[in-house]
Amino acid sequence: MTNNQINYPWVGNRPFNDYSSYFKKKFTERVQKISIDAGFSCPNRDGTKGTGGCTYCNNATFNPFYCEPTKSVTQQINEGIAFFEPKYKTQQYLAYFQAFSNTYGDIKLLKKLYNEALNHPKVIGLVIGTRPDCVNNEILDYLADLSKKYFVVVEYGIESTLDRTLQLINRCHTHQESVDAILKTAERKIETGAHIIIGLPGESDEEIIEHAKILSRLPITSLKLHQLQIVKSTALAKQYADNPERIRLFQADEYIKLVIKFLEHLSPNIIIERFISESPSDLLIAPKWKRLKNFEIVSKIEKKMKENNTYQGKYY
Fold first, then answer.
1. Which of 71, 138, 199, 229 shows the shortest CA–CA distance to 82?
2. What pTM was estimated for this model as a whole?
3. Which among 10, 55, 66, 115 counts the fewest CB atoms within 10 Å?
4. How far apart are CA 180 and CA 132, in angstroms?
């Protein structure tokens, strides 16, 4: 059977369950996420569980220029719309609470911030990035109520399914906490996203593929894959400078091959939202991959999968 004869169990004809096709089916017009920095922290930064944060994390690598916690949620949304609107005249927006852990606060504060975003006339929903140890039943019940009226996604930074890795990168939570949070979120019929970093220190290819098998057993709606990047002003940058041989960094072709193997073992029901992370050139130390963009990596992955007559979930 040739690849173009395969009847994929998802929308579209790509060899993986891609997010853009899912969005086109779900919404009547184009939808754009607008990042918001609401001034949250993380329990592994403020001393509650640890200090210093995740060893790889520098929020400046993904915060747009208009994201500043000194600005109101409304101002950040307006500035985000002003940035995107000239490119796409007709579209709706999702308020993306992205920086740090966006459920790490008192429920009254969360309601105030989320409601401010949802009261904007062009915002149709929320995407909330957080840690699995920063949700509780009260927060999830509130988000479940919101999800009956608005589009709501909770994105969890899982990063790895191995506790030894989570300890090494100073996450200060366990994989079981990720499992518990995902189950509690999904059972409330809230769309549940997850992040995984490919290539964390000490993880073998076999262990990375095992991540796919473990995640496939969970009720995850969507998944973001990120290659490990060394960025400035992080603990990982110092570790890399001191002992570069201890940190494995993929070349682009190596990463593409491993991601394809990962996808082959991943449930076809999980929507792939992203394959790589793109850090600003002035902050990125390594790997640089000749500045390949996300769409170029995606194109290479898709081309290679079709050449190999393979697809997401082939060995699931």
1. 71
2. 0.93
3. 115
4. 8
All structural domains of the chain with their residue ranges: 3-307
Residues 6+ apart with CB under 8 A from 67: 35, 36, 37, 76, 98, 99
In Å, how far from its chain's centre is CA 308? 27
Q: How far apart are CA 29 and CA 206, in angstroms?
A: 41
Q: What is the pLDDT of residues 63-100, one digit of tens each?
A: 788 889 999 999 999 999 999 988 887 789 999 999 99
Do 112 and 141 meet the contact criterion of CB atoms below 8 Å apart? no
Tokens of residue 193, six digits: 């996203």
Distance CA 147, CA 170 (A): 32
Give the Cα separation of 71 and 91 in Å (integer).
24
Q: What is the DSSP pairing of strand 284-286 with strand 230-231?
A: antiparallel
What is the C-alpha radius of gyration for the chain, rounded to an integer number of angstroms? Answer: 19
Residues of the chain with pLDDT > 70: what percent? 98
Burial zone of 103 (CB within 10 Å; 0-12 exposed, 13-18 middle, 19+ buried): buried
Contact between 72 and 116 under an 8 Å Cβ cutoff? The reply is yes
CATH class for the domain made up of 3-307: alpha beta
- The chain-wide mean pLDDT, for the chain, equals 94
